[in-house]
């Protein structure tokens, strides 16, 4: 791997036995994994190109144990990498050679469900889908629905501020979480946020969500529950050109319709998915659009007619509306299988996650096409069309020397392009180690220094998940000294975002 | 005390870094519609931000608007309304609440104060709609947070902490907000005569149904008029019609559901029934605590957000904050009294907040005493 991680501390490596013993004193029994095979199971998350066997793995059963582990690690100067289910696509849970891997999987209980105020309080290791499963028979659900929802933990969702196909209408994790319990590196157990909205203090909760395990360890999450919509209807629409599909999306929004989901696939993705699941996607189109409407039957039918009219106006060549739940699920099957489907075309794929202003889509896809030729690697695109979040899937074969490096270079070029057209490096998968070194594409040194000062407010010794998010982690004392000369706003000529 | 009026970021940065070096305090001011919240301790210079005004970029199809903070809220609202869009968090002007003219509130002010209207529980608050910003920190340095697209998780989500920070972290010079389409139609409904306990149950029942309301508020009995528990439905007509049936069914146990005009939402924005009150509290609560809270305090009040927000006229800090505290709520002092503006935080959280404030403003120049007891 080409990635540079923080230099392991030799004294910590040398004290491994002592560290293991200390953790065993805090978490008795099976909760400390010391043997090589056991540790190897944690060597990577879903970004499998990067691997590192951790110093030791600890799986606490209680928040008090989490607190004791963190205090001990702070006092001993040991780094800590929190981990939920290990489905991060950005290497957020990549272990450190000299770091304790702190797994939250045993904290997996649903603590309280309040149907009157429509909230659930759960431990971080509860999976995203388990929350919905626990409340669906009463007609409720938890809205953010990452495709990994069967496996990913709510603690990981909070750390990554995860989204899903329905976040256009219902928001990301940050818009659906009311409170967390956070254990700081000092072992303090703090409740941040609450059931009362906008209570007046600083919105620390907003900072914690999306902080990728760098500010503290989440040991409890209070989420909002919503009433499950009565019906959902999906429209499947094929377009001869990406422009046509893009224009249809713009007109749907302009008509004041915010669909529950609005997904686009390009030609390679359509072909891949159809070959894999055979749901009858049209193969003679350049873009496929799936628009889902939810609400009362009357609303879905009414708006579906409007969406269909917009699609026709913009040259849709196929247009099908789901007649029942089975057909709706079938429309989605190909989209949901897009990732594994690409696995049919190439042994490995690399999933990117930039966001662009929607209007730039045709241009971005064209340039990506040219890059695909330049790098000699194929790419298929699935796109959260409503909010501009693009998932190019780069196909490669890690067994062919040089292809992994080329895939990474292609990926970086795509993300630079996203920033160049006014977008961002990551829409929902997080920075992790993957996009860490690209952060200066989007942020100036000042911007990054300001973000790091926030890190220092929580973790002054930089022990929590170092090597993630920040391309260079300055010592906190150094950051305090950096100062700008009077009136000299650095880089005044840089573009705004 | 003097008033500075920097014209650009360069001048603002210089002003701030000079103040930091000299140990002076600065209070950021745009329209002044909320100037009466807190008090003037007299230790700070005023920074008049009015030069930072104007629309930078508005792209209706992207649902994104970039604007300078001192732009009047009314101007922003008119701009997006022309494209049948709106600010989804329904910010409002505090002017009328203080008996002043409306029209002075600015977009930066309502974001910095985290002002959100009746749709808050359903469409999110200022925090949920601020996508990106540009600002000068307490070190005098320009920096950005967030971005100009609706979906972004690159780096810490600084817009969240800037929204509602009341100018205590940095001086905003530009902000990008998400906009939403204006619902095509709106209908409002009321059930009369419920007591607070029953009203809470009715609001909870409705919000747990698929009626999908965008407003649920309660106006207590006053001057002989019975209480009203009110709901708002928005969307396309066929959708509202279908959901009206759902709403009526959900409320069947509570009495007849009558359609009313929409003035009631204006009442919730201007708090007209509480205008004469010398002291005004804004109490955020778990909705469940609503009835227990209002029954403890014999004062005039209005409730919004399904019971999650109580505007309370009068009452001393101790009983109001005590009752809120007991019920997991927080009471913010909006007008009068002499108590600290914000509900005191538990010690551990207060220390954490302090450290975060220092991360943006190491010398504490934005801490003007405005929100302290006096
Ligand atoms: C097939 C597939 C599909 C996916 N689809 C989506 C999608 O549609 N949308 C989307 O947004 N993401 C998606 N993801 C990415 C991933 O599932 C999410 O980022 C998820 O939130 C990670 O959760 P996790 O429990 O696996 O966390 P992990 O991978 O274990 O950890 C992720 C990060 O969170 C930190 N962390 C974990 N738990 C805690 C805690 N309790 N306290 C503090 N920090 C913690 C870790 O340190 C790490 O930085 C997908 C992944 C896969 C493999």
Task: Walk me through the structure.
The complex is a heterodimer of chains A (497) and B (374). Chain A is of the alpha+beta class and 497 residues long. Chain A has five domains: 10-103, Uridine Diphospho-n-acetylenolpyruvylglucosamine Reductase, domain 2, CATH 3.30.43.10; 110-227, 2-Layer Sandwich (Uridine Diphospho-n-acetylenolpyruvylglucosamine Reductase, domain 3), CATH 3.30.465; 230-344, Alpha-Beta Plaits (2-Layer Sandwich), CATH 3.30.70; 346-431, 2-Layer Sandwich (Alpha-Beta Plaits); 439-476. Helices cover 36% and strands 19% of the residues of chain A. Chain A has helices spanning 10-14, 16-26, 36-40, 63-76, 128-135, 154-160, 167-170, 204-208, 242-254, 267-277, 297-313, 325-336, 338-345, 361-375, 403-420, 439-442, 445-458, 476-481, and strands spanning 32-33, 56-58, 79-83, 99-103, 110-114, 119-122, 140-141, 177-183, 189-193, 217-224, 226-227, 231-239, 261-266, 287-295, 316-321, 348-351, 379-384, 389-396. In chain A, the strands form four sheets. A seven-stranded antiparallel β-sheet of chain A has the order 15-12-14-13-17-18-16, with helices on both faces. In chain A, a hairpin with a 4-residue loop joins β5 and β6 (119-122). Chain A is globular. By secondary structure, chain B is an alpha+beta fold. Chain B has two domains: 3-181, Uridine Diphospho-n-acetylenolpyruvylglucosamine Reductase, domain 3, CATH 3.30.465.10; 185-335, Alpha-Beta Plaits, CATH 3.30.70. In chain B, 29% of the residues lie in helices and 24% in strands. Chain B has twelve helices and 18 strands. Chain B has helices spanning 9-22, 73-81, 107-112, 120-123, 126-129, 158-162, 196-207, 237-250, 263-270, 290-296, 317-326, 347-360; strands at 3-4, 25-29, 44-48, 55-59, 64-67, 85-86, 130-137, 142-146, 170-178, 180-181, 185-192, 215-219, 228-235, 258-260, 280-284, 301-304, 309-313, 330-335. A five-stranded antiparallel β-sheet of chain B has the order 4-5-9-7-8. In chain B, strands 12-13-11-14 form a four-stranded antiparallel β-sheet, with helices on both faces. In chain B, β12 and β13 form a beta hairpin. In chain B, α7 (196-207) packs antiparallel against α10 (290-296). The model of chain B has no long low-confidence stretch (mean pLDDT 94). Bound molecules: flavin-adenine dinucleotide. Residues 45-46, 81-89, 92-93, 104, 124, 146-148, 152-153, 155-157, 159-160, 162-164, 212-213, 217-218, 339, 428-430, 465 of chain A line the site of flavin-adenine dinucleotide (FAD).
């Amino acid at each position: 791997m080409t990635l540079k991680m923080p230099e392991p501390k030799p004294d910590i490596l040398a004290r491994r036995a002592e560290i293991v013993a200390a953790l065993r004193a805090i978490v008795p029994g099976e909760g400390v994994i010391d043997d090589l095979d056991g540790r190897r199971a944690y060597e990577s998350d879903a970004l499998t190109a990067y691997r590192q066997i951790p110093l030791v793995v600890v799986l606490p059963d209680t928040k008090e144990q989490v607190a004791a582990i963190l205090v001990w690690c702070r006092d001993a100067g040991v780094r800590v990498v929190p981990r939920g289910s290990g489905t991060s696509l950005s290497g957020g849970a990549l272990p450190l050679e000299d770091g304790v891997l702190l797994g939250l999987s045993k904290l997996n209980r649903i603590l309280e469900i309040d149907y009157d105020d429509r909230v659930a309080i759960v431990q971080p290791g509860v999976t995203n889908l388990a929350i919905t499963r626990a409340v669906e028979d009463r007609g409720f659900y938890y809205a953010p629905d990452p495709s990994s929802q069967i496996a990913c933990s709510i603690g990981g969702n909070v750390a990554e501020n995860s989204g899903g196909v329905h976040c256009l209408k219902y928001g990301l994790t940050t818009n659906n979480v009311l409170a967390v319990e956070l254990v700081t590196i000092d072992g303090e157990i703090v409740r941040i946020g609450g059931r009362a909205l906008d209570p007046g203090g600083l919105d620390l909760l907003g900072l914690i969500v999306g902080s990728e395990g760098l500010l503290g360890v989440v040991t409890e999450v209070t989420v909002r529950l919503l009433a499950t919509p009565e019906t959902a209807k999906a429209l499947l629409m094929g377009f001869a050109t990406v422009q046509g599909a893009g224009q249809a999306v713009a007109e749907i929004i302009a008509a004041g319709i915010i669909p529950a989901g609005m997904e686009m696939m390009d030609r390679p993705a359509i072909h891949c998915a159809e070959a894999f699941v055979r749901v009858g996607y049209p193969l003679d189109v350049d873009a496929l659009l799936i628009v889902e409407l939810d609400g009362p039957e009357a609303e879905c039918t009414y708006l579906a007619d409007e969406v269909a009219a917009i699609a026709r106006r913009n040259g849709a060549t196929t247009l099908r509306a789901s007649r029942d739940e089975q057909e709706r699920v079938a429309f989605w099957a190909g989209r949901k299988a897009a990732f594994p489907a690409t696995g049919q075309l190439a042994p490995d794929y690399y999933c990117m996650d930039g966001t662009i202003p929607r209007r730039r889509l045709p241009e971005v896809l064209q340039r990506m096409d040219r890059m695909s030729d330049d790098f000699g690697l194929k790419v298929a695109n699935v796109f959260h069309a409503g909010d501009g979040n693009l998932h190019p899937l780069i196909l490669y074969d890690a067994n062919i020397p040089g292809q992994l490096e080329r895939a990474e270079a292609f990926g970086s070029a795509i993300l630079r392009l996203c920033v160049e057209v006014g977008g961002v490096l990551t829409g929902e998968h997080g920075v992790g180690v993957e996009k860490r070194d690209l952060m200066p594409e989007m942020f100036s040194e000042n911007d990054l220094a300001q973000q790091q000062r926030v890190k220092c407010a929580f973790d002054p010794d930089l022990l929590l998940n170092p090597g993630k998010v920040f391309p260079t982690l300055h010592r906190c004392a150094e950051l305090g000294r950096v100062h700008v000369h009077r009136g000299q706003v650095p880089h005044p000529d840089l573009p705004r975002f | 005390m003097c008033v500075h009026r920097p014209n650009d970021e360069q001048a603002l940065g210089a002003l701030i870094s000079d103040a930091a070096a000299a140990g002076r305090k600065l209070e950021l001011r745009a329209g002044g519609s909320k100037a009466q919240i807190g008090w003037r301790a007299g230790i700070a210079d005023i920074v008049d931000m009015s030069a930072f005004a104007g629309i930078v970029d508005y792209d209706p199809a992207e649902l994104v608007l970039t604007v300078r903070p001192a732009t009047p809220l009314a101007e922003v609202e008119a701009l997006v309304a022309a494209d049948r869009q709106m600010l989804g968090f329904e910010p409002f002007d505090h002017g009328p609440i203080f008996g002043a003219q409306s029209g002075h509130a600015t977009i930066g002010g309502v974001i910095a104060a985290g002002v959100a209207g009746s749709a808050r529980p359903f469409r999110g608050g200022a925090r949920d709609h601020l996508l990106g910003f540009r600002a000068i920190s307490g070190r005098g340095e320009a920096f950005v947070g967030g971005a100009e697209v609706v979906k972004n998780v690159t780096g810490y989500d600084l817009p969240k902490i800037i929204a509602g920070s009341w100018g205590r972290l940095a001086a905003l010079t530009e902000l990008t907000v998400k906009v939403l389409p204006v619902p095509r139609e709106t209908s409002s409904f009321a059930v009369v005569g419920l007591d607070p306990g029953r009203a809470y149950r009715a609001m909870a029942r409705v919000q747990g149904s698929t009626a999908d309301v965008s407003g649920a508020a309660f106006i207590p009995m006053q001057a002989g008029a019975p209480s009203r528990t009110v709901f708002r439905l928005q969307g396309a007509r066929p959708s509202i019609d279908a959901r009206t049936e759902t709403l009526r069914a959900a409320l069947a146990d509570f009495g007849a559901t009558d359609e009313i005009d929409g003035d009631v939402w204006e009442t919730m924005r201007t708090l007209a029934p509480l205008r004469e009150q010398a002291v005004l509290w804004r109490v955020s609560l778990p909705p469940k605590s609503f009835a227990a809270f209002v029954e403890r305090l014999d004062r005039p009040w209005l409730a919004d957000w399904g019971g999650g927000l109580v505007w309370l006229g009068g009452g001393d800090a101790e009983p109001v904050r005590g009752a809120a505290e007991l019920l997991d709520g927080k009471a913010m002092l909006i007008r009068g009294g002499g108590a600290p503006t914000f509900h005191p935080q538990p010690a551990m959280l207060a220390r954490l907040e302090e450290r975060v404030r220092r991360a943006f403003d190491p010398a504490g120049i934005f801490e003007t005493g405005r929100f302290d007891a006096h």
